Amino acid sequence: MTSDTTQSEVAAEQTExxxxxxxxxxxxxxxxxxxxxxxxxxxxxxxxxxxxxxxLGFQGLHGLLTEGERDSLDPHAVLRALDRRRPGSDLxxxxxxxxxxxxxxxxxxxxxxxxxxxxxxxxxxxGARLAITTNNSPRVxxxxxxxxxxxxxxxxxIYGRTQDLHLLKPDPHCLNRALRAMGCAPTSxxxxxxxxxxxxAARAAGVPxxxxxxxxxxxxxxxxxxxxxxxxxxxxxxxxxxxxx
Length: 245
What we know:
HAD_sf; HAD-SF_hydro_IA; hydrolase; HAD-IA family hydrolase
């Protein structure tokens, strides 16, 4: 057996798995930052994290973070670190709102993920119901969707970050909220995500998972987490969906 034959067989198996996921999905749960757009394509996430850390410093609260946390490139990591030490506090509420404002700034220059818009519209047209399940603020999601003319494809099913930060993914809370609101069994849904936390949340909720990896590093991280069906382009999903329509 040649390597070309092996690759062809793997590709055929992945295509079959993808078609099976699509055919079973009555409800599609989308992560936001990644599968739908690159929220921090211009307004960089590391700058947002730095802003949060500097704001804490201005409040005289630098000591609440470790050195590693102060150097974090992920604003959610900063938020989680504070929540572990001051859960439910006014400080957390202020920091979460500050992050929301930064996300709203980022949404203005967010880069749409290739093929996401036509895939969303096609899935809606063939009768699937869609929801957003994200660690980003729902206000940010609503702002972005309105700008792309996609609100009707999702509203009112947008489930994002609250001030209960321990319920962020990988906790399945936002997925379970969506499933309950839409009256859908987990096995009749599908989640599209691009991070290990998306996969782990889907697994905890009992929802089949489709990984989107725009580069090899993303794909490797998803595989390491346990994801088995991963695409590098949403065009692949769109073609599979149209072949079943």
